[in-house]
User: Which sequence fits this backbone?
């Protein structure tokens, strides 16, 4: 990993120490941990009674109730789970736009969220796009120990998801960080990602040049992901059309998120430091 | 077209490409990587921008700035427009001589002159246009035309083949045509004879260049008893010494060939005795700047003999005349029918074609005249005669008969007179006393008879000479009322000859054929016309320069009006439009 990106991870980790992941109210599942789950478990919190069935732990039989009713009744307790965060990163070429803070912001934001998750006693998994989705090496470790996040993949987020979707943990939190700049209806992809999730947050990370159209003049635009070029004379009307198109794209994502219960927020890579409050507003982060 | 006052201001034109370069650098396609072209796939293209472009599109203010700059550059040139009421007629005097076609094609003075003429015609307007070709004499190439485009047909008649260019005569004609109010342009290849041009608005443009040129300056073929003597004279008419090859052929036979090395303006003469039966001799030089003077031809000359009938009763005189006639070599062996009758009677000789030489009887005591003799030197009979020092005996009381033209007189005493009768026969009267004279003992005597026979021979049907210079008149006496002339390019022309003698229309060098008369009595002759004009072939004095002008600077200023204020106004209007565009653009952004 390049030194600036590694530094971004460390910076994100530093910032993340001030935050904790805001866990959803919906029941969560996971490995044995410190949070109450929605299933029966071995915590001290009583949940329910039921009849004994062969195989039940004899230690959970309520002998007092047996004495009163001559029936074998098992006392159920809430399980204690450790919440899980699946951080799904778009590492395609569009997120590695040169002369922008987009890749650094991606690293910083991922480190921040992973650190906040750790503060919330959450386990974590980092998924990145490539030829399908794959785990980042050492993603369970603190961000400083993560393996490299290779930027510049040729596959878009949607294509990578179509090839090999991430194996997301059920009832876990899921956060997608992407610029969301791909064609097609976002709803199908979002439905799959939200399926079985305790919560789904979509963070649209844009460079400032993505959010605002270039200055007027003759431009040869080059798609950083596909290499396709477009020579165009940009004037005020074209800039307005660009802004309208971006707004329309964001609206389509907003609608898709609404249908799948996901939360959408847009961050500008160059203004990441000032944009963290937006993550608190959508109840993704809270002060630690 | 406007005239330019400050040509150096053309340097300011460089600002136009500079401005274009600045805009190009500013508005060229800058490469900009974007995350995705997704947001640029506009469904509706903007009317002003957004179209896919192959070349950079410049904003409208660029064109306004370009226009303003162009106007300012034009204003800096100080353009002045010719006022319509000041235009004058233009008369162009074109040197029609052969030297205007010297040099390789495309670089000949004629080409340069045409280029210059077109520039002048594009530069300013004239009220009308007239072309005069200055050859051996001036000739109008067509009518006056109101527009220069109509000159094309006339220019095609400018052939540059004449053996001389009488520019003075052409200038005189130009002055007469418009009574001096026209602008006269002379296009030639040499300087004017005098640096002070004739009065009037004359602009003399010489567009020639000195070039290496060899030329035939003389060619003659003279019949002699045994054969003919041919003379070719070649001159190096270049500014420096040069070499060339002279080759003389008769059919396939090479008669003479030599490599010549001649200093400037030096000549080389070749005299070739050839049999009288030898046909046309053709001489040629190697290629040089002027090709038209590199060839000469000499056809076989017709031997013109005169049938003479002697009717002189004085035996001594008859013997003297007979010997004299024999000495001229122009007497035909036969005398039937006579063409010249030498007699002593007062009656006119019989014979339709018979001229007469009448020896007037002189008394015993004749006067001995020693001069001074008065002679009509323009008459054919006196060609080459010099009478001082001789004694001419004649009747002192003799007077000139009515109708006789005195040719040689001693004071008021006619010695030789002539008269044309009704049939155009010449009757020569000679007052001559052999016993009192010494003229018959001098060369003047056979010369006088040679002149007489030669004069008579020239009056015979046919051509007087068979080898001529281009530009010389070619008189022809046909047999009958028509003649047919065949040109060197084998084209033929029928000529009507109502008056007996005509001038053949010879405009180019080469070998011609002319015939006339009935089939049974046809007279057929060939004659050669050679370009033998040393002055015209001399390219050492060719020059490129100009003399004279169409008025002084002050006169020209009055003929033109400045358009500077209009240009400045237009530039200001452009500047206002520029300001408005910028303000509008700021308002939009």
Assistant:
């Amino acid at each position: 990993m390049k030194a600036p990106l590694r530094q971004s991870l460390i910076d994100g980790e530093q910032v993340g120490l001030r935050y904790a992941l805001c866990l959803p109210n919906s029941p969560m599942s996971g490995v044995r941990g410190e949070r109450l789950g929605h299933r029966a478990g071995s915590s001290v919190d009583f949940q329910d009674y039921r009849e004994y069935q062969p195989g039940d732990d004899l230690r959970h039989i309520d002998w007092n109730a047996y004495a009163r009713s001559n029936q074998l009744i098992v006392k159920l307790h809430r399980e204690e789970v450790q919440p899980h965060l699946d951080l799904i990163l778009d590492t395609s070429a569009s997120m590695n736009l040169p002369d922008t803070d987009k890749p650094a912001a991606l690293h910083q934001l991922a480190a921040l969220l992973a650190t906040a998750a750790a503060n919330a006693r959450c386990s974590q998994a980092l998924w990145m796009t490539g030829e399908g989705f794959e785990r980042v090496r050492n993603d369970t470790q603190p961000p400083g120990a993560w393996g490299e996040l290779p930027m510049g993949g040729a596959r878009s987020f949607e294509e990578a998801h179509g090839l090999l979707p991430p194996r997301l943990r059920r009832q876990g939190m899921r956060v997608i960080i992407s610029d969301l700049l791909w064609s097609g209806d976002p709803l199908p992809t979002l439905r799959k990602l939200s399926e079985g999730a305790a919560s789904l947050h979509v963070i649209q990370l844009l460079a400032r040049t993505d959010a605002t159209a270039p200055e007027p003049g003759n431009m040869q635009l080059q798609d950083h992901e596909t290499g396709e070029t477009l020579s165009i004379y940009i004037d005020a009307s074209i800039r307005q059309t660009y802004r309208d198109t971006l707004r329309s794209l964001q609206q389509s994502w907003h609608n898709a998120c609404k249908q799948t219960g996901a939360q959408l927020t847009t961050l500008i890579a160059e203004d990441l430091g000032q944009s963290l409050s937006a993550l608190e507003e959508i109840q993704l982060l809270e002060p630690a | 077209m406007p005239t330019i006052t400050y040509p150096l201001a053309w340097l300011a034109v460089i600002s136009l490409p500079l401005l274009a370069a600045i805009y190009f650098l500013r508005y060229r396609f800058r490469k900009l990587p974007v995350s995705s072209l997704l947001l640029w796939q506009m469904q509706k293209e903007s009317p002003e921008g957004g179209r896919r472009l192959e070349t950079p599109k410049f904003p409208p203010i660029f064109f306004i700035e370009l226009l303003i700059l162009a106007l300012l550059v034009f204003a800096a040139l100080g353009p002045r427009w010719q006022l319509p009421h000041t235009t004058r007629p233009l008369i162009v005097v074109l040197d029609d001589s052969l030297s205007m076609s010297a040099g390789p094609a495309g670089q000949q003075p004629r080409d340069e002159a045409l280029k210059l003429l077109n520039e002048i015609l594009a530069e300013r307007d004239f009220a009308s246009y007239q072309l005069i070709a200055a050859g051996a004499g001036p000739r109008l190439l067509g009518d006056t035309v109101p527009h220069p485009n109509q000159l094309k047909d006339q220019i095609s008649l400018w052939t540059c083949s004449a053996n001389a260019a009488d520019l003075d005569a052409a200038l005189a004609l130009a002055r007469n045509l418009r009574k001096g109010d026209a602008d006269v342009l002379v296009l030639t290849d040499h300087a004017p004879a005098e640096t002070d041009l004739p009065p009037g608005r004359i602009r003399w443009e010489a567009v020639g260049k000195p070039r290496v040129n060899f030329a035939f300056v003389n060619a003659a073929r003279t019949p002699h008893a045994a054969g003919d003597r041919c003379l070719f004279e070649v001159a190096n008419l270049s500014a420096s010494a040069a070499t060339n090859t002279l080759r003389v052929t008769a059919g396939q036979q090479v008669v003479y060939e030599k490599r010549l090395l001649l200093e400037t303006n030096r000549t080389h003469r070749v005299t070739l005795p050839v049999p009288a039966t030898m046909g046309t001799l053709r001489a040629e030089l190697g290629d040089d700047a002027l090709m038209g003077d590199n060839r000469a031809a000499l056809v076989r000359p017709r031997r013109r003999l005169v049938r003479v009938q002697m009717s002189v009763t004085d035996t001594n005189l008859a013997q003297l005349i007979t010997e004299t006639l024999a000495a001229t070599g122009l007497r035909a062996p036969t005398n039937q029918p006579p063409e010249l009758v030498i007699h002593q009677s007062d009656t006119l000789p019989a014979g339709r074609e018979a001229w007469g030489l009448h020896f007037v009887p002189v008394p015993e005591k004749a006067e001995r005249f020693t001069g001074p003799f008065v002679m009509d030197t323009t008459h054919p009979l006196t060609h080459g005669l010099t009478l001082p020092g001789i004694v001419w005996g004649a009747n002192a009381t003799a007077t000139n008969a009515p109708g006789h033209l005195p040719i040689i007189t001693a004071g008021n005493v006619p010695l030789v007179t002539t008269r044309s009768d009704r049939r155009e026969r010449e009757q020569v009267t000679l007052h001559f006393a052999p016993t009192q004279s010494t003229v018959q003992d001098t060369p003047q005597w056979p010369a006088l008879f040679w002149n007489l026979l030669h004069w008579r021979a020239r009056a015979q049907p046919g051509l007087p000479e068979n080898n001529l210079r281009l530009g010389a008149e070619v008189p022809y006496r046909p047999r009958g009322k028509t003649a047919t002339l065949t040109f060197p390019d084998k084209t033929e022309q029928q000529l009507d000859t109502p008056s007996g003698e005509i001038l053949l229309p010879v405009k180019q060098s080469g070998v011609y054929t002319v015939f006339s008369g009935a089939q049974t009595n046809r007279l057929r002759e060939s004659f050669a016309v050679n370009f033998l004009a040393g002055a015209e072939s001399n390219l050492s004095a060719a020059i490129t320069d100009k003399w004279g002008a169409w008025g002084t600077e002050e006169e020209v200023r009055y003929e033109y009006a400045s358009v500077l204020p209009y240009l400045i106004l237009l530039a200001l209007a452009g500047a206002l439009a520029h300001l408005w565009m910028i303000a509008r653009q700021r308002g939009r952004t």
